[in-house]
């Protein structure tokens, strides 16, 4: 056969020039190791969002105008009594002062009861009266505290600076991403560290400190991503032990580990050359590549061991193993790469980089595992003792294979199919509960019970502060100063009023709403004046006191931002809110006013959810289409293809069901899991079926062919599933929720795909595969 | 036979997978309805057995079960409504910004706009019936509108010099009409609104409401918790103790003559002694309250405000 002659030719060249090849590989490895040291960690926010999505274009367009509310909030909470004690106010003052000196803080923006920008105003008979909430001569006496208590009520800051139950007070500050004097970018991790120092200094004597804000989140995520290195070490160590137990040879273990590490090193070395960095998501790729590398190394060393035990010397055994495994191995790797490539269809840069990085890593493995490993093996040999042990090992697991071969016999096969059908039915039913989007509270990157998200919950619970916000941009056209145009402002007021009543909306903040309150303020605080005036000059009076720093309007007031705070960020909730916004827009067409979706963290989530939903089915069609085609080309049989594909499809459904049961949403991090899992899982089927096909061609019965396939490749498959599941399973302990989710799901996919390959594949074959008409006719020559 | 089992299985898998990955939709979420809990309410009155509350953006809510459930009533306008009054259980008038005047003949279940003048930029702030035919509405910049046909047609009139805001109008038990407003403005009419006299100022700040007391006398309230009471139709005024905590924007009386006054920062005051003294009632939250209406239970009233309504109970045990 043509392909085989090509493989033979490659083998001849490879083993003829094995010293030169080895030298070449060593040189490449050295060069790429050096290059890998240049790798930078790159957690760009832009990479996480579907930039091509319509909403995200609005987001990008208005980002500069309305800024990211890059704020840090520190809440001090007293366990017993209320905040009006001298000790609490001393702590609050100390924290305010320390926040003032944080790096990157815009000092005028620091706000707490102690800062001069917090004043109270009251309407009195002849106008307004006001002052600082905490008077300059505050000394903490009971009278002082009573005065502050009254001033706090008058200041209207309850819920914002003082908690609704008067047990907590807040310090807030804006951070400048770029230092205006030096132009240097703010080191968020450093700010996060300083914030943590403030916490450790003041969290005592019944006072709890809660800290949230983008800087703190970035700090916590970075820290979580760093911990991944430890998981890598753990995964490496466990794999090494398992390899040793499996092969019984330290030499083979070392060779397999080295050959599994080489593609990782090559990959990390190539990334800087390609202009890629590594981010919290793609940092997982090295694990995956290492695990896949180990699995292929195991197949190869296993084959080599069998040859050596069979009596061949190292070189011959290596050459034979190469010829036997190059095709199925390369095929399997190609399938892996295809699985990863279909992820490219998701239009989010971070996912695309994951796809490219993973595909590249797998492609590299064809060279490192099929070529480098066999060359290395060619110099090795087993001592007589090792041969004996290996031989014993070969038969030690045989009872299992003999037992399992029954899966290919008609009756047990039928039972397996029925069991699989029942499982699939249950899985299908469960999977309908899968929801798109993050299902937790707080920021989706971190666990619900992480410090950060607990702090968020504590602050949201006791203050009137929302953290999930969908921003709608109101862009006026051909209007000079939309803020003083009654028609536009009234439309926006109606929009606010409508959105307030949408299920899932907690509150709405908009310029018209604020202006109405200001107008009442100008009219002795009388709520019956809480309206927008039709008179542009009076309207201007109501709008002027509202600063652009509020993020509600731009400097020339042609664009405004309406902030819709949602109760949570569950996919269904936020999709509903967006749907209602669209309804309002459709019902209120205007030449002068365009309402644009969407900004805010919820805007990003909605866009991401829509992108994920849109990509899911196409991605799966591409995935199964391409892998099916690959199998069809390899085995020239649609029946064989079905035997390999059907178990994978069932496992894909089960994966969705598992996500629904575990409360993991379908999102940027979990959408690629099925593709990764199927891409890797198809290996098992290909390796097994390839062997079975050879045996069937010799004319043996299906159970016999299956038994032989299990004997030659079963151990390696079981071992592979175990090491890979362990490799990714370590992520389950990651501080980053999406890594944990991916780890659990991938481990599930790897193990269940293995089960599918050794149970369901033969059972299906029992019903689908015809016995060849010419036994031993044109057995593939090798 | 064997083959068909395999094929049936393949078809079953294909169908299941197709269904499993078909578009998933959660249960539909409740439709968007304007709710009383998200609206600023500015006045509330009883129309017989029905409670009617009016507020921002022309919203009118009605309840036939003492506030257990509320229905949004079509008002046909989007101007903020500031005041509502009923002559009996059927005839009612609501007023508001844009000089909007609405009329109902079915106890507030449906409303027709009978007057509006958006260009004048003068909001109406309160309305009171003199009898079933005569109605008075007052508002900003000295606005005074009267109707002699039960609110079908309206005419405007300048009643005294100046353009002070008139924040409230009320008919006392003896038929005297009274208007309270900006900067201590107090006007009185002894002839059903024909002629008006300016009373000497008793206070420099603004009044936001007038409450003719069921048991005689009249109470005016306003800025910074000002509470004044007169037993001689406004000739003399006494300061009532218990105010002062913050501006008072609305008030009402229980069926047995108890008084409830409400205002800013969650302020709710109650009196069971005919407005001789007031005590602060504990109502949770620091909401803005704007109006109160009687409930058919002795000592109980419903208060209304920013996105809220609450049942309040006057403390018993005080002298009646």
TrEMBL record, chain A:
Residues 220-379 form the SSD domain. Coiled coil: none annotated. It is a multi-pass membrane protein. The keyword Transmembrane helix applies. The chain crosses the membrane at residues 227-247, 254-277, 283-304, 325-348, 354-379, 413-429, 642-664, 670-689, 716-736, 742-769. Keywords: Cell membrane, Membrane, Transmembrane, Transmembrane helix. The keyword Transmembrane applies. Its main location: membrane. InterPro entries: MMPL_dom (IPR004869), Mycobact_MmpL (IPR050545), SSD (IPR000731). GO terms for cellular component: plasma membrane. It comes from the Bacteria. It is found in: Cell membrane. This is SSD domain-containing protein. It comes from Azonexus fungiphilus.
Automatic annotation (TrEMBL), chain B:
Keywords: Photosynthesis, Photosystem II. It comes from the Bacteria. SUPFAM superfamilies: Oligoxyloglucan reducing end-specific cellobiohydrolase. GO terms for cellular component: photosystem II. Residues 124-262 form the Photosynthesis system II assembly factor Ycf48/Hcf136-like domain. GO terms for biological process: photosynthesis. PANTHER family: PHOTOSYSTEM II STABILITY/ASSEMBLY FACTOR HCF136, CHLOROPLASTIC (PTHR47199), PHOTOSYSTEM II STABILITY_ASSEMBLY FACTOR HCF136, CHLOROPLASTIC (PTHR47199:SF2). This is Photosystem II stability/assembly factor-like uncharacterized protein. It comes from Azonexus fungiphilus.
């Amino acid at each position: 056969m043509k392909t085989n002659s090509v493989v033979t030719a490659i083998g001849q060249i490879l083993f003829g020039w094995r010293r030169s090849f080895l030298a070449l590989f060593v040189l490449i490895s050295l060069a790429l190791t050096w290059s890998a040291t240049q790798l930078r960690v790159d957690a760009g926010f832009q990479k996480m969002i579907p930039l091509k999505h319509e909403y995200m274009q609005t987001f990008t367009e208005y980002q500069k105008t309305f800024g990211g509310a890059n704020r840090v909030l520190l809440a001090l909470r007293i366990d017993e009594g209320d905040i009006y004690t001298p000790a609490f106010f001393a702590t609050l003052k100390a924290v305010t002062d320390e926040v003032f000196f944080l790096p990157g803080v815009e000092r005028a923006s620091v706000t707490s009861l102690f800062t001069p920008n917090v004043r109270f105003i009251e309407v009195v008979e002849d106008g307004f009266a006001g002052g600082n909430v905490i008077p300059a001569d505050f000394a903490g006496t009971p009278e002082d505290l009573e005065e502050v208590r009254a001033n706090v009520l008058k200041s209207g800051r309850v819920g914002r600076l003082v908690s609704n139950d008067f047990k907590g007070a807040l310090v807030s500050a804006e951070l400048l991403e770029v230092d205006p004097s030096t132009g240097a970018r703010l080191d968020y991790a450093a700010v996060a560290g300083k914030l943590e120092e403030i916490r450790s200094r003041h969290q005592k004597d019944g006072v709890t400190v809660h800290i949230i804000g983008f800087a703190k989140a970035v700090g916590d995520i970075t820290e979580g991503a760093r911990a991944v290195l430890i998981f890598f070490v753990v995964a490496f160590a466990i794999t090494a032990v398992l390899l040793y137990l499996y092969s019984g040879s330290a030499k083979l273990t070392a060779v397999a580990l080295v050959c599994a590490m080489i593609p990782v090193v090559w990959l990390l070395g190539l990334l800087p050359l390609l202009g890629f960095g590594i981010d919290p998501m793609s940092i997982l790729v090295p694990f995956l590549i290492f695990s896949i590398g180990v699995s292929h190394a195991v197949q190869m060393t296993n084959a080599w061991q069998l040859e050596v035990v069979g009596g061949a010397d190292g070189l011959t055994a290596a050459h034979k193993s190469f010829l036997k495994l190059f095709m199925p191995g390369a095929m399997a790797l190609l399938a892996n790469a295809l699985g990863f490539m279909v992820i490219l269809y998701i239009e989010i840069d971070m996912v695309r980089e994951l796809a490219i990085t993973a595909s590249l890593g797998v492609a590299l493995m064809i060279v490192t595992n099929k070529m480098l490993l066999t060359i290395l093996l060619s110099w090795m040999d087993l001592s007589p003792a090792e041969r004996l042990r290996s031989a014993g090992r070969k038969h030690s697991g045989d009872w299992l294979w003999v037992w399992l071969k029954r899966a290919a016999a008609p009756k047990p096969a039928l039972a397996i199919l029925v069991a699989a059908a029942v499982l699939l039915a249950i899985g299908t039913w469960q999977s309908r509960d899968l929801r798109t989007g993050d299902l937790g509270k707080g920021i989706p990157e971190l666990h619900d019970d992480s410090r950060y998200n607990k702090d968020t919950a504590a602050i949201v619970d006791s203050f009137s502060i929302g953290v999930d916000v969908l921003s709608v941009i109101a862009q006026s056209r051909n209007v000079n100063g939309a803020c003083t145009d009654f028609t536009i402002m009234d439309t926006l007021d109606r929009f606010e009023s409508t959105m307030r009543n949408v299920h899932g909306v907690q509150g709405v903040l908009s310029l018209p709403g604020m202006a109405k309150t200001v107008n009442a303020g100008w009219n002795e605080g009388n709520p019956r004046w809480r309206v927008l005036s039709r008179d542009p000059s009076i309207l201007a009076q109501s709008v002027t006191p509202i600063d652009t720093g509020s993020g509600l309007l731009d400097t020339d007031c042609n664009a405004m931002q309406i902030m819709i705070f949602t109760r949570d960020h569950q996919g269904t909730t936020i999709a509903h809110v967006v749907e209602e916004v669209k309804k309002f827009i459709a019902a209120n067409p205007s030449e002068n006013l365009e309402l644009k979706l969407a900004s805010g963290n919820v805007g990003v989530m909605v866009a991401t959810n829509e992108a994920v939903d849109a990509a899911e089915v196409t991605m799966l069609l591409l995935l199964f289409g391409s892998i099916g085609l690959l199998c069809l080309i390899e085995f020239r049989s649609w029946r064989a293809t079905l035997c390999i594909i059907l178990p994978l499809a069932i496992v894909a459904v089960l994966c969705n069901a598992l996500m629904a049961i575990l409360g993991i949403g379908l999102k940027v991090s979990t959408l690629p899991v099925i593709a990764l899992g199927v891409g890797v899982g198809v290996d098992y089927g290909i390796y097994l079926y390839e062997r079975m096909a050879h045996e069937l061609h010799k004319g043996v019965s299906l159970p016999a062919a299956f038994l032989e396939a299990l004997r030659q490749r079963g151990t390696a498959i079981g071992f592979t599933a175990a090491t890979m599941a362990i490799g990714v399973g370590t992520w389950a302990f990651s501080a980053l929720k999406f890594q944990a989710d991916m780890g659990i799901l991938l481990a599930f996919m790897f193990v269940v795909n293995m089960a599918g390959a050794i149970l369901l594949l033969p059972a299906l074959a029992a019903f689908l595969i015809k016995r060849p008409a010419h036994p031993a006719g044109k057995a593939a020559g090798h | 036979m064997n083959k068909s089992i395999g094929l049936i299985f393949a078809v079953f898998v294909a169908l299941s997978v197709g269904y499993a990955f078909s578009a998933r939709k959660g249960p539909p979420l409740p439709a968007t309805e304007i709710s009383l809990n998200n609206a600023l309410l500015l006045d509330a009155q009883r129309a017989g057995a029905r409670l009617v509350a009016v507020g921002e953006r022309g919203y009118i809510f009605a309840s036939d079960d003492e506030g257990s459930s509320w229905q949004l009533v079509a008002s046909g306008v989007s101007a903020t409504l500031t005041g509502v009054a009923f002559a009996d259980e059927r005839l009612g008038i609501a007023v508001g910004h844009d000089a909007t005047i609405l009329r109902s003949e079915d106890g507030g279940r449906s409303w027709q706009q009978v007057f509006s003048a958006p260009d004048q930029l003068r909001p109406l702030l309160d309305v009171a019936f003199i009898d079933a035919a005569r109605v008075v509405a007052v508002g900003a910049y000295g606005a005074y509108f009267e109707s002699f046909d039960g609110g079908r047609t309206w005419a405007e009139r300048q009643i005294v010099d100046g353009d002070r805001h008139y924040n409230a109008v009320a008919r006392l038990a003896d038929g005297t009409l009274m208007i309270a407003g900006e900067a201590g403005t107090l006007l009185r009419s002894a002839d059903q609104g024909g002629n008006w006299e300016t009373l000497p100022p008793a206070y420099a700040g603004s009044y936001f409401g007038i409450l003719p007391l069921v048991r005689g006398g009249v109470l005016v309230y306003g800025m910074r918790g000002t509470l004044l009471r007169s037993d001689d139709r406004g000739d003399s005024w006494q300061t009532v103790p218990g105010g002062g905590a913050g501006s008072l924007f609305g008030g009402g009386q229980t069926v047995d003559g108890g008084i409830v006054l409400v205002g800013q920062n969650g302020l709710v005051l109650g009196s069971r002694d005919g407005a001789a003294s007031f005590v602060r009632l504990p109502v949770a939250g620091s909401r803005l309250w704007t109006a109160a209406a009687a409930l058919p239970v002795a000592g109980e009233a419903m208060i209304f405000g920013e996105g809220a309504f609450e049942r309040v109970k006057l403390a018993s045990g005080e002298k009646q």
